[in-house]
Specification:
single chain, about 475 residues, TIM Barrel, Immunoglobulin-like, 2 domains, 8-stranded parallel β-sheet, 5-stranded antiparallel β-sheet, binds alpha-D-glucopyranose
Amino acid sequence: MKTIFTRTFFCTLACLFIRIGSTKAQTSDKMDWWKDAKFGMFMHWGLYSKTAGYWNGHKAKGNEHFMIHEKISLKEYAAIADDFNPVNYDAEEWVLTAKNAGMKYIIITSKHHDGFAMFDSPSNDYNIKTRTPYGKDPMKALVDACHKHNMKFGFYYSLGRDWEDPDVATNWPQKGGRSNLVDYPNEDIKVFSRYFKRKVKPQVKELLTQYEKIDVLWFDTPELISPAESKELRELILSIQPNCIINSRIGKGLGDYKVTEQKIVKGLEMNPWEACITMGKNWGYIEYDTIYKSSELMTRQLLEIVSKGGNLLLNNGPTAAGEITSLAQERLAKMGKWMKKNSEGIYGSKPWITQVELLSNAKKIEDIDKKEDENTMKDNANDATSKVIIPEIRFTLKGGNVYAYVCSFLEKQVTIKSLSKNKNIKIKEVELLGSTEKIKWRQTPQGLKIEMPKYAKSQIPIAGFKMTTE
Ligand code: GLC
Protein backbone atom coordinates (compact mmCIF):
# COMPACT_ATOMS: atom_id res chain seq x y z
CA MET A 1 0.00 0.00 0.00
CA LYS A 2 2.77 2.28 1.06
CA THR A 3 4.75 1.57 -2.15
CA ILE A 4 1.72 2.20 -4.34
CA PHE A 5 1.15 5.44 -2.52
CA THR A 6 4.80 6.45 -2.82
CA ARG A 7 4.84 5.51 -6.51
CA THR A 8 1.65 7.42 -7.23
CA PHE A 9 2.99 10.38 -5.28
CA PHE A 10 6.27 10.46 -7.18
CA CYS A 11 4.55 9.86 -10.51
CA THR A 12 2.23 12.79 -9.87
CA LEU A 13 5.20 14.90 -8.85
CA ALA A 14 7.14 13.86 -11.95
CA CYS A 15 4.14 14.56 -14.20
CA LEU A 16 3.74 17.92 -12.57
CA PHE A 17 7.37 18.76 -13.26
CA ILE A 18 7.10 17.60 -16.85
CA ARG A 19 3.94 19.67 -17.19
CA ILE A 20 5.56 22.74 -15.68
CA GLY A 21 8.61 22.10 -17.81
CA SER A 22 6.61 21.87 -20.98
CA THR A 23 4.55 24.99 -20.23
CA LYS A 24 7.81 26.80 -19.70
CA ALA A 25 9.23 25.41 -22.91
CA GLN A 26 6.08 26.46 -24.74
CA THR A 27 6.17 30.01 -23.41
CA SER A 28 9.80 30.42 -24.26
CA ASP A 29 9.22 28.98 -27.75
CA LYS A 30 6.44 31.42 -28.35
CA MET A 31 8.71 34.30 -27.32
CA ASP A 32 11.76 33.13 -29.27
CA TRP A 33 11.18 35.04 -32.50
CA TRP A 34 10.23 38.13 -30.52
CA LYS A 35 13.38 38.06 -28.40
CA ASP A 36 15.52 37.68 -31.52
CA ALA A 37 13.69 40.36 -33.51
CA LYS A 38 14.83 43.45 -31.53
CA PHE A 39 13.33 45.98 -33.89
CA GLY A 40 9.72 46.55 -34.90
CA MET A 41 7.50 49.19 -36.44
CA PHE A 42 4.63 50.74 -34.53
CA MET A 43 1.93 52.39 -36.64
CA HIS A 44 -0.75 54.79 -35.44
CA TRP A 45 -3.38 55.17 -38.10
CA GLY A 46 -6.94 56.27 -37.64
CA LEU A 47 -9.49 59.04 -38.16
CA TYR A 48 -7.12 61.42 -36.34
CA SER A 49 -4.66 60.96 -39.24
CA LYS A 50 -7.17 62.75 -41.44
CA THR A 51 -7.39 65.95 -39.38
CA ALA A 52 -3.59 65.78 -39.10
CA GLY A 53 -3.35 67.95 -35.98
CA TYR A 54 -5.99 70.55 -36.86
CA TRP A 55 -9.58 71.09 -35.83
CA ASN A 56 -11.82 73.85 -37.16
CA GLY A 57 -8.84 75.67 -38.59
CA HIS A 58 -6.72 75.71 -35.42
CA LYS A 59 -4.03 73.42 -34.05
CA ALA A 60 -5.95 70.86 -32.03
CA LYS A 61 -5.07 70.08 -28.43
CA GLY A 62 -4.07 66.53 -27.57
CA ASN A 63 -2.75 65.08 -30.85
CA GLU A 64 -4.54 61.81 -31.61
CA HIS A 65 -6.59 62.39 -28.43
CA PHE A 66 -8.07 65.64 -29.69
CA MET A 67 -11.63 64.31 -29.67
CA ILE A 68 -11.79 64.57 -25.89
CA HIS A 69 -9.42 67.50 -25.44
CA GLU A 70 -11.41 69.62 -27.87
CA LYS A 71 -14.67 68.28 -26.39
CA ILE A 72 -15.99 67.03 -29.72
CA SER A 73 -19.15 64.94 -29.80
CA LEU A 74 -19.09 61.47 -31.23
CA LYS A 75 -21.38 62.54 -34.06
CA GLU A 76 -19.08 65.38 -35.09
CA TYR A 77 -15.93 63.27 -34.76
CA ALA A 78 -17.46 60.36 -36.65
CA ALA A 79 -18.06 62.68 -39.61
CA ILE A 80 -14.30 62.60 -40.27
CA ALA A 81 -14.93 59.10 -41.59
CA ASP A 82 -17.04 60.50 -44.43
CA ASP A 83 -13.84 61.72 -46.08
CA PHE A 84 -11.42 59.07 -44.95
CA ASN A 85 -10.19 57.41 -48.09
CA PRO A 86 -6.62 56.10 -48.14
CA VAL A 87 -6.33 56.02 -51.92
CA ASN A 88 -2.52 55.83 -51.83
CA TYR A 89 -2.39 52.98 -49.35
CA ASP A 90 -0.14 50.18 -50.50
CA ALA A 91 0.25 47.53 -47.82
CA GLU A 92 3.20 45.92 -49.50
CA GLU A 93 5.06 49.22 -49.65
CA TRP A 94 4.56 49.67 -45.89
CA VAL A 95 5.87 46.23 -45.18
CA LEU A 96 8.87 46.71 -47.44
CA THR A 97 9.62 50.06 -45.80
CA ALA A 98 9.75 48.30 -42.44
CA LYS A 99 11.69 45.37 -43.81
CA ASN A 100 14.28 47.56 -45.52
CA ALA A 101 14.77 49.42 -42.26
CA GLY A 102 15.69 46.12 -40.63
CA MET A 103 12.44 45.77 -38.72
CA LYS A 104 11.09 42.31 -38.00
CA TYR A 105 7.53 43.02 -36.89
CA ILE A 106 4.73 45.53 -37.35
CA ILE A 107 2.15 46.54 -34.75
CA ILE A 108 -0.72 48.70 -35.99
CA THR A 109 -3.67 50.40 -34.29
CA SER A 110 -6.72 48.26 -34.96
CA LYS A 111 -8.72 50.53 -32.67
CA HIS A 112 -7.36 53.56 -30.83
CA HIS A 113 -8.99 55.46 -27.94
CA ASP A 114 -11.53 57.04 -30.30
CA GLY A 115 -13.14 53.59 -30.57
CA PHE A 116 -13.06 53.56 -34.37
CA ALA A 117 -12.09 50.18 -35.78
CA MET A 118 -9.60 50.31 -38.65
CA PHE A 119 -10.70 46.80 -39.61
CA ASP A 120 -13.84 45.03 -40.72
CA SER A 121 -15.77 44.58 -37.51
CA PRO A 122 -19.09 42.79 -38.01
CA SER A 123 -19.86 43.25 -34.30
CA ASN A 124 -19.65 47.04 -34.31
CA ASP A 125 -20.38 49.24 -37.29
CA TYR A 126 -18.13 52.12 -36.18
CA ASN A 127 -15.43 50.87 -38.50
CA ILE A 128 -13.55 51.71 -41.67
CA LYS A 129 -15.38 49.29 -43.91
CA THR A 130 -18.86 50.47 -43.00
CA ARG A 131 -18.29 54.16 -42.40
CA THR A 132 -15.77 55.39 -44.96
CA PRO A 133 -15.81 55.79 -48.74
CA TYR A 134 -12.86 53.37 -48.77
CA GLY A 135 -15.30 50.60 -47.87
CA LYS A 136 -12.70 47.89 -47.39
CA ASP A 137 -10.64 46.34 -44.62
CA PRO A 138 -7.05 47.64 -45.00
CA MET A 139 -5.77 45.21 -42.37
CA LYS A 140 -6.39 42.21 -44.57
CA ALA A 141 -3.90 43.46 -47.17
CA LEU A 142 -1.40 44.38 -44.47
CA VAL A 143 -1.49 40.99 -42.79
CA ASP A 144 -1.19 39.28 -46.17
CA ALA A 145 1.80 41.45 -47.14
CA CYS A 146 3.43 40.70 -43.78
CA HIS A 147 2.96 36.98 -44.25
CA LYS A 148 4.34 37.23 -47.78
CA HIS A 149 7.47 39.07 -46.65
CA ASN A 150 8.14 37.11 -43.51
CA MET A 151 7.27 40.02 -41.26
CA LYS A 152 5.61 39.27 -37.92
CA PHE A 153 2.37 41.10 -37.33
CA GLY A 154 0.39 42.37 -34.36
CA PHE A 155 -2.64 44.48 -33.55
CA TYR A 156 -2.70 47.38 -31.10
CA TYR A 157 -6.05 47.58 -29.29
CA SER A 158 -7.10 50.34 -26.91
CA LEU A 159 -8.62 48.43 -24.02
CA GLY A 160 -9.75 50.71 -21.21
CA ARG A 161 -10.38 53.80 -23.35
CA ASP A 162 -13.07 53.89 -25.97
CA TRP A 163 -14.89 57.10 -26.78
CA GLU A 164 -17.62 55.49 -28.83
CA ASP A 165 -18.92 53.11 -26.21
CA PRO A 166 -21.17 54.51 -23.44
CA ASP A 167 -19.81 52.21 -20.73
CA VAL A 168 -16.15 53.14 -20.53
CA ALA A 169 -15.27 55.17 -17.45
CA THR A 170 -11.70 56.25 -16.62
CA ASN A 171 -10.08 57.49 -13.46
CA TRP A 172 -6.82 58.96 -14.72
CA PRO A 173 -5.50 61.56 -14.04
CA GLN A 174 -8.83 62.09 -12.22
CA LYS A 175 -12.31 60.62 -12.40
CA GLY A 176 -13.47 60.81 -16.02
CA GLY A 177 -10.05 62.15 -17.07
CA ARG A 178 -9.87 60.17 -20.30
CA SER A 179 -13.55 59.52 -20.94
CA ASN A 180 -15.99 60.82 -23.52
CA LEU A 181 -17.91 63.16 -21.22
CA VAL A 182 -19.55 65.07 -24.07
CA ASP A 183 -21.80 62.20 -25.10
CA TYR A 184 -21.70 60.22 -21.87
CA PRO A 185 -21.27 62.67 -18.97
CA ASN A 186 -22.29 60.42 -16.09
CA GLU A 187 -19.30 58.27 -15.09
CA ASP A 188 -21.26 56.64 -12.26
CA ILE A 189 -23.61 54.72 -14.54
CA LYS A 190 -20.90 53.26 -16.77
CA VAL A 191 -20.35 49.52 -16.41
CA PHE A 192 -17.09 48.27 -17.90
CA SER A 193 -18.25 44.66 -18.08
CA ARG A 194 -21.01 45.65 -20.51
CA TYR A 195 -18.48 47.23 -22.87
CA PHE A 196 -16.15 44.27 -22.37
CA LYS A 197 -18.86 41.86 -23.42
CA ARG A 198 -20.39 44.00 -26.15
CA LYS A 199 -17.25 45.31 -27.85
CA VAL A 200 -13.89 44.05 -26.56
CA LYS A 201 -14.46 40.31 -26.68
CA PRO A 202 -16.23 40.23 -30.06
CA GLN A 203 -13.62 42.52 -31.65
CA VAL A 204 -10.67 40.63 -30.20
CA LYS A 205 -12.24 37.45 -31.59
CA GLU A 206 -12.56 39.12 -34.98
CA LEU A 207 -8.92 40.19 -34.90
CA LEU A 208 -7.87 36.64 -34.15
CA THR A 209 -10.11 34.85 -36.62
CA GLN A 210 -10.32 37.07 -39.70
CA TYR A 211 -6.63 37.14 -40.66
CA GLU A 212 -5.01 33.80 -39.97
CA LYS A 213 -1.90 34.14 -37.83
CA ILE A 214 -1.60 37.12 -35.49
CA ASP A 215 1.73 37.19 -33.68
CA VAL A 216 1.09 39.88 -31.09
CA LEU A 217 -1.85 41.52 -29.38
CA TRP A 218 -0.63 44.88 -28.14
CA PHE A 219 -3.10 46.34 -25.68
CA ASP A 220 -3.03 49.90 -24.47
CA THR A 221 -4.48 51.59 -21.40
CA PRO A 222 -5.99 48.78 -19.33
CA GLU A 223 -7.51 51.47 -17.05
CA LEU A 224 -10.51 50.00 -15.17
CA ILE A 225 -10.43 46.42 -16.39
CA SER A 226 -10.79 43.95 -13.51
CA PRO A 227 -8.29 41.14 -12.79
CA ALA A 228 -10.96 38.60 -13.78
CA GLU A 229 -11.53 40.35 -17.11
CA SER A 230 -7.82 40.59 -17.91
CA LYS A 231 -7.57 36.88 -17.18
CA GLU A 232 -10.63 36.06 -19.26
CA LEU A 233 -9.25 38.07 -22.16
CA ARG A 234 -5.90 36.32 -21.98
CA GLU A 235 -7.60 32.93 -21.95
CA LEU A 236 -9.83 33.92 -24.85
CA ILE A 237 -6.84 34.96 -26.95
CA LEU A 238 -4.85 31.84 -26.20
CA SER A 239 -7.83 29.59 -26.85
CA ILE A 240 -7.94 30.95 -30.42
CA GLN A 241 -4.23 31.53 -31.10
CA PRO A 242 -2.08 29.81 -28.46
CA ASN A 243 1.14 31.33 -29.81
CA CYS A 244 -0.06 34.90 -29.78
CA ILE A 245 2.18 37.09 -27.64
CA ILE A 246 0.38 39.56 -25.37
CA ASN A 247 1.92 42.75 -23.98
CA SER A 248 1.69 43.87 -20.36
CA ARG A 249 -1.10 46.35 -21.02
CA ILE A 250 -3.67 43.58 -20.98
CA GLY A 251 -3.45 44.54 -17.31
CA LYS A 252 -2.98 42.91 -13.92
CA GLY A 253 0.48 41.52 -14.64
CA LEU A 254 -0.83 39.07 -17.22
CA GLY A 255 1.25 40.06 -20.24
CA ASP A 256 4.16 38.17 -21.76
CA TYR A 257 6.43 41.20 -21.83
CA LYS A 258 6.73 44.65 -20.33
CA VAL A 259 6.25 47.88 -22.25
CA THR A 260 8.02 51.15 -21.54
CA GLU A 261 6.71 54.20 -23.34
CA GLN A 262 8.93 57.03 -24.55
CA LYS A 263 11.70 55.95 -22.24
CA ILE A 264 14.45 53.37 -21.99
CA VAL A 265 15.06 51.35 -18.82
CA LYS A 266 18.06 52.46 -16.75
CA GLY A 267 20.09 49.27 -16.75
CA LEU A 268 20.11 45.68 -17.88
CA GLU A 269 16.73 43.97 -17.73
CA MET A 270 16.56 40.24 -18.32
CA ASN A 271 12.78 39.82 -18.50
CA PRO A 272 11.38 40.55 -21.97
CA TRP A 273 10.68 44.25 -22.47
CA GLU A 274 10.03 46.64 -25.29
CA ALA A 275 10.36 50.40 -25.55
CA CYS A 276 7.89 52.14 -27.83
CA ILE A 277 9.24 55.45 -29.02
CA THR A 278 8.13 58.07 -31.54
CA MET A 279 10.26 59.41 -34.38
CA GLY A 280 8.72 62.84 -34.14
CA LYS A 281 6.75 64.17 -31.19
CA ASN A 282 3.47 62.41 -31.89
CA TRP A 283 2.08 58.95 -32.45
CA GLY A 284 -0.49 59.77 -35.10
CA TYR A 285 0.23 61.86 -38.19
CA ILE A 286 0.46 65.59 -37.44
CA GLU A 287 1.20 67.75 -40.44
CA TYR A 288 3.36 70.23 -38.51
CA ASP A 289 5.29 67.61 -36.54
CA THR A 290 8.36 67.78 -38.73
CA ILE A 291 11.17 67.58 -36.21
CA TYR A 292 12.15 63.95 -36.23
CA LYS A 293 15.00 62.31 -34.40
CA SER A 294 17.99 61.76 -36.62
CA SER A 295 18.73 58.26 -37.92
CA GLU A 296 21.91 58.36 -35.85
CA LEU A 297 19.99 59.06 -32.65
CA MET A 298 17.43 56.35 -33.34
CA THR A 299 20.12 53.81 -34.19
CA ARG A 300 21.83 54.68 -30.91
CA GLN A 301 18.52 54.17 -29.10
CA LEU A 302 18.13 50.78 -30.77
CA LEU A 303 21.62 49.79 -29.65
CA GLU A 304 21.04 51.05 -26.12
CA ILE A 305 17.83 49.05 -25.87
CA VAL A 306 19.35 45.90 -27.34
CA SER A 307 22.40 46.13 -25.06
CA LYS A 308 19.96 46.18 -22.12
CA GLY A 309 18.01 43.16 -23.37
CA GLY A 310 15.00 44.89 -24.94
CA ASN A 311 13.24 45.53 -28.25
CA LEU A 312 12.60 48.87 -29.92
CA LEU A 313 9.14 49.47 -31.35
CA LEU A 314 9.68 52.60 -33.38
CA ASN A 315 6.54 54.50 -34.27
CA ASN A 316 5.41 56.25 -37.39
CA GLY A 317 2.05 57.74 -38.23
CA PRO A 318 0.99 57.34 -41.87
CA THR A 319 -1.22 59.99 -43.49
CA ALA A 320 -4.93 59.50 -44.03
CA ALA A 321 -4.17 59.00 -47.70
CA GLY A 322 -2.17 55.96 -46.66
CA GLU A 323 1.39 57.21 -47.08
CA ILE A 324 4.36 56.86 -44.79
CA THR A 325 5.74 60.41 -44.63
CA SER A 326 8.86 61.18 -46.63
CA LEU A 327 10.61 62.21 -43.41
CA ALA A 328 9.99 58.79 -41.90
CA GLN A 329 10.95 57.09 -45.16
CA GLU A 330 14.24 58.95 -45.28
CA ARG A 331 15.13 58.19 -41.63
CA LEU A 332 14.18 54.54 -41.98
CA ALA A 333 16.06 54.05 -45.23
CA LYS A 334 19.22 55.42 -43.64
CA MET A 335 18.82 53.16 -40.63
CA GLY A 336 18.20 50.26 -42.97
CA LYS A 337 21.40 50.87 -44.85
CA TRP A 338 23.29 50.81 -41.56
CA MET A 339 21.42 47.70 -40.39
CA LYS A 340 22.35 45.82 -43.55
CA LYS A 341 25.99 46.08 -42.59
CA ASN A 342 25.74 45.94 -38.84
CA SER A 343 22.76 43.88 -37.73
CA GLU A 344 24.71 40.67 -37.14
CA GLY A 345 25.33 41.59 -33.50
CA ILE A 346 21.76 42.81 -33.01
CA TYR A 347 19.29 40.10 -34.09
CA GLY A 348 19.35 37.11 -31.80
CA SER A 349 21.87 38.74 -29.50
CA LYS A 350 21.92 38.76 -25.71
CA PRO A 351 23.23 41.45 -23.39
CA TRP A 352 26.91 41.21 -22.51
CA ILE A 353 28.27 41.70 -18.97
CA THR A 354 28.93 45.34 -19.80
CA GLN A 355 26.25 47.33 -21.59
CA VAL A 356 28.04 50.57 -22.27
CA GLU A 357 31.41 52.26 -22.08
CA LEU A 358 31.85 55.98 -22.59
CA LEU A 359 34.50 57.14 -24.99
CA SER A 360 36.96 59.60 -23.56
CA ASN A 361 36.70 62.36 -26.14
CA ALA A 362 34.10 64.46 -24.32
CA LYS A 363 35.26 67.81 -25.66
CA LYS A 364 33.97 67.16 -29.15
CA ILE A 365 30.51 66.04 -28.09
CA GLU A 366 29.16 69.53 -28.60
CA ASP A 367 30.23 69.52 -32.24
CA ILE A 368 28.19 66.46 -33.03
CA ASP A 369 25.29 67.79 -31.04
CA LYS A 370 25.29 71.07 -32.93
CA LYS A 371 25.61 69.39 -36.27
CA GLU A 372 22.62 67.23 -35.39
CA ASP A 373 20.70 70.10 -33.90
CA GLU A 374 18.23 70.70 -36.66
CA ASN A 375 17.24 67.05 -36.62
CA THR A 376 17.50 66.41 -32.93
CA MET A 377 14.63 67.08 -30.60
CA LYS A 378 14.84 68.52 -27.16
CA ASP A 379 12.84 66.80 -24.48
CA ASN A 380 9.12 67.34 -24.70
CA ALA A 381 6.12 66.41 -22.67
CA ASN A 382 5.73 62.78 -23.66
CA ASP A 383 9.14 61.82 -24.98
CA ALA A 384 11.57 61.34 -22.13
CA THR A 385 14.34 59.68 -24.14
CA SER A 386 17.69 61.43 -24.19
CA LYS A 387 18.48 63.47 -27.28
CA VAL A 388 22.14 63.91 -26.44
CA ILE A 389 24.70 62.30 -28.65
CA ILE A 390 27.66 61.14 -26.57
CA PRO A 391 30.50 59.08 -28.02
CA GLU A 392 30.05 55.67 -26.43
CA ILE A 393 30.35 51.96 -27.05
CA ARG A 394 27.39 49.61 -26.81
CA PHE A 395 27.95 45.87 -26.38
CA THR A 396 26.04 42.71 -27.23
CA LEU A 397 26.84 39.02 -27.16
CA LYS A 398 26.03 36.40 -29.76
CA GLY A 399 27.34 32.92 -30.43
CA GLY A 400 30.11 33.42 -27.90
CA ASN A 401 31.36 36.54 -29.67
CA VAL A 402 31.29 40.03 -28.24
CA TYR A 403 30.00 42.79 -30.50
CA ALA A 404 31.04 46.37 -29.86
CA TYR A 405 29.24 49.26 -31.51
CA VAL A 406 31.36 52.37 -31.37
CA CYS A 407 28.85 55.20 -31.57
CA SER A 408 29.39 58.75 -32.79
CA PHE A 409 33.16 58.47 -32.51
CA LEU A 410 35.60 61.18 -33.50
CA GLU A 411 38.97 59.60 -32.78
CA LYS A 412 41.11 57.82 -35.33
CA GLN A 413 41.89 55.22 -32.71
CA VAL A 414 39.52 53.96 -30.04
CA THR A 415 40.44 52.12 -26.85
CA ILE A 416 37.81 49.73 -25.53
CA LYS A 417 38.68 49.41 -21.85
CA SER A 418 36.12 46.67 -21.18
CA LEU A 419 38.15 44.42 -23.50
CA SER A 420 41.58 45.02 -21.95
CA LYS A 421 44.09 42.23 -21.62
CA ASN A 422 43.56 42.27 -17.85
CA LYS A 423 39.94 41.22 -18.12
CA ASN A 424 40.70 37.61 -18.91
CA ILE A 425 39.26 37.91 -22.39
CA LYS A 426 41.67 36.81 -25.07
CA ILE A 427 40.74 38.22 -28.44
CA LYS A 428 41.57 36.17 -31.50
CA GLU A 429 40.19 38.37 -34.18
CA VAL A 430 38.48 41.73 -34.70
CA GLU A 431 36.26 42.26 -37.73
CA LEU A 432 34.52 45.39 -38.95
CA LEU A 433 30.91 44.40 -39.66
CA GLY A 434 29.72 44.63 -43.23
CA SER A 435 33.23 45.09 -44.57
CA THR A 436 36.18 43.11 -45.77
CA GLU A 437 38.55 45.88 -44.69
CA LYS A 438 41.40 44.53 -42.54
CA ILE A 439 41.25 46.19 -39.16
CA LYS A 440 44.37 47.10 -37.18
CA TRP A 441 43.95 46.17 -33.54
CA ARG A 442 46.01 45.44 -30.45
CA GLN A 443 44.92 44.11 -27.08
CA THR A 444 46.81 45.93 -24.34
CA PRO A 445 46.43 46.17 -20.56
CA GLN A 446 44.65 49.52 -21.11
CA GLY A 447 42.18 48.09 -23.53
CA LEU A 448 41.54 46.87 -27.02
CA LYS A 449 42.97 49.52 -29.35
CA ILE A 450 41.29 49.70 -32.74
CA GLU A 451 42.11 51.89 -35.75
CA MET A 452 38.76 53.31 -36.76
CA PRO A 453 37.44 53.18 -40.31
CA LYS A 454 36.71 56.38 -42.26
CA TYR A 455 33.11 57.46 -42.57
CA ALA A 456 31.32 59.34 -45.31
CA LYS A 457 29.23 62.27 -44.07
CA SER A 458 26.07 60.62 -45.33
CA GLN A 459 26.64 57.53 -43.20
CA ILE A 460 25.58 56.96 -39.61
CA PRO A 461 28.84 57.25 -37.63
CA ILE A 462 28.49 53.99 -35.73
CA ALA A 463 31.00 51.24 -36.40
CA GLY A 464 30.18 47.67 -35.43
CA PHE A 465 32.95 45.23 -34.53
CA LYS A 466 32.84 41.53 -33.94
CA MET A 467 35.38 40.17 -31.50
CA THR A 468 36.12 36.49 -31.72
CA THR A 469 37.45 35.34 -28.37
CA GLU A 470 39.53 32.35 -27.37
C1 GLC B 1 0.50 57.14 -25.37
C2 GLC B 1 -0.42 57.93 -26.26
C3 GLC B 1 -1.29 56.99 -27.06
C4 GLC B 1 -0.45 55.96 -27.78
C5 GLC B 1 0.39 55.21 -26.78
C6 GLC B 1 1.34 54.19 -27.36
O1 GLC B 1 -0.19 56.57 -24.31
O2 GLC B 1 -1.18 58.79 -25.47
O3 GLC B 1 -2.07 57.71 -27.96
O4 GLC B 1 -1.24 55.07 -28.48
O5 GLC B 1 1.17 56.14 -26.07
O6 GLC B 1 1.99 53.53 -26.34
